[in-house]
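Subject: for your reference before the review

Hello V.,

The reviewers asked for a structural picture of the protein, and I figured it would be easier to keep everything in one thread rather than splitting it across files. Below is the amino acid sequence we used in the manuscript, unchanged from the supplementary table.
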Amino acid sequence: MIALIRRDLQLAVRQGSDAALVLIFFLLAVLLFPFGVGPEPSILARIATGALWVTALLAALLSLERLFQADYEDGSLDQLALLPQPFGLVVAAKLIAHWLLTGMPLTVFAPLLALLLGMDAAGYPTLIMALLLGTPTLSLIGGLGAALTLGARRGGVLLALLILPLDIPVLIFGVAAVDAAIAGFAVGPHLAMLGAMLLVALPLSPWATAAALKQAMS
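And here is what came back from the structure prediction:
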C-alpha cells in the first residue's frame, strides 16, 4: 500500500495539474464571496463556515472524475487488479493518496481563508478537526462515485449527482461543529458524528469501489 501511495503521489507531482487545480479553485471560490455578498465583516463572518465547507466539497469533487480514469485508459488499472494483494487494499491506497493531494491541502489552507473571511478565532481548532474527519469521508464516498461512473459519457455530471446527496451529512455536521465552537457550545457530538461516518466509510468504501471497478473493467 505504501508503494502504491508513493506511486500516485509521484505521478501527481510530475503532472501537478489536478492537485493544483483543486487548491486554486478552493482559494479563488472563497475569495469571491466578499465580492458577491459585500465586504461587510459581520456578514462575511456569519457565512464563513458554510462558505468554506461548501467550497471544500466542490473543490474535492473536481479531481474525482480523474481518480481512476488515467489508469483505466492506459491499462494500469488492469495490472493493479492482478496484484497478489486484495484489490480493495489497492483501491484504499489510491483513495489515501487522493486525500493527501486534496483533503490535506484544503485543511491546511482553510484557517487562512477563514481569517480572510473574518471568522471568529474560537472556531479555528474545530474547523481543522472537522476537516480532518470530514475530508477523508468525502474522498471515500467520491471514490465510489468515480468507480460507478468510470467510462460513462458525461461522467462528471453523473458523479456529482451520485455523491453530492451522500456528502450532505458531512457538510451539515462539519458546519454545525464549527458554529457550535464559535457560539460556545459543545462540539463533541458533531465531531463524533463526523468520526462515525468516517469509521463506517473506511472499511466499506474501498471494497465497494473495488467491486464497481471490476464491473467497469469487465
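For the response letter, the relevant points are probably these. Residues 2-217 form one domain. The chain has ten helices and no strands.

Happy to draft the paragraph if you're swamped.

O.
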